[in-house]
Amino acid sequence: MFRVATTINRGFTLVELVVVIILVGTLSALGVSLFASKRAFSPLLASQQLASATLLAQQAALAGNAGSDLLISQTSDAFRFTVGPSSASPRVFTIAREGASLSVAGGLPRTLSFGTDGVPASGTNLTLTFSGDSTFQSCISSRGAVYSGGCQP
């Protein structure tokens, strides 16, 4: 009877492990540099926060609640969106500016009121522009829709 010699390789070689460690280290260094700067994301986050606050004010208007106004303002260090500023319990959304700015026709602070149908009382489109390392626009249309990008005429 003959025995067949078989070799069983188990595990990884030292060279393979070192290569994987170098690759993981390089990728993590690149990834950290992409997400280390909050300023690059501040305008996007602020525009999303504005959309959330606007929808909350619209829901309050549809439900017939007192908090159907939205006050849009900015301080030296933060954007502030206040739903129901004159109600007994206003809801305030604040996000750090991180070097970004907000511009809107008519200037800030700006109050938007919504009717019982969820439509802005002004009846006009409103474009808000968040500028920083990048620029994002949000539109609150005359029909109450909130979307990213400039308003269409």
Structural description of this entry:
By secondary structure, the protein is an alpha+beta fold. The protein has two helices and eight strands, in the order H-H-E-E-E-E-E-E-E-E. 22% of the residues are buried. The model has no long low-confidence stretch (mean pLDDT 85).
Brief account:
It contains 2 helices and 8 strands.
List the helices and strands and how they pair.
Layout: H1 14-35, H2 42-63, E1 69-74, E2 78-83, E3 91-96, E4 101-104, E5 110-113, E6 126-131, E7 135-140, E8 146-148
Antiparallel strand pairs: 1-2, 1-5, 2-3, 4-6, 6-7, 7-8
In sequence order, what are the helices and strands, one letter per element? Answer: HHEEEEEEEE
The level of helicity is 25-40%
Q: Provide the CATH top-level class of the domain at 42-147.
A: Alpha Beta
Helical segment count: 2
Assigned CATH superfamily of the domain at 42-147: minor pseudopilin epsh domain
Structural class: alpha+beta
- Radius of gyration, in Å, reads 26 Å
Number of strands: 8
Shape: elongated
Low-pLDDT stretches: none
Question: Which sheet architecture does the biggest sheet show?
Answer: 4 strands, antiparallel
CATH topology of the domain at 42-147: minor pseudopilin epsh fold
Strand order of the largest sheet: 3-2-1-5
Q: Mind telling me which CATH architecture of the domain at 42-147 this is?
A: 3-Layer(bab) Sandwich
Q: What oligomeric state is this?
A: single chain
Task: Summarize model confidence as the mean pLDDT.
Answer: 85
The CA-CA distance between the termini, in Å, is 90 Å
Indicate the proportion of strand residues.
25-35%
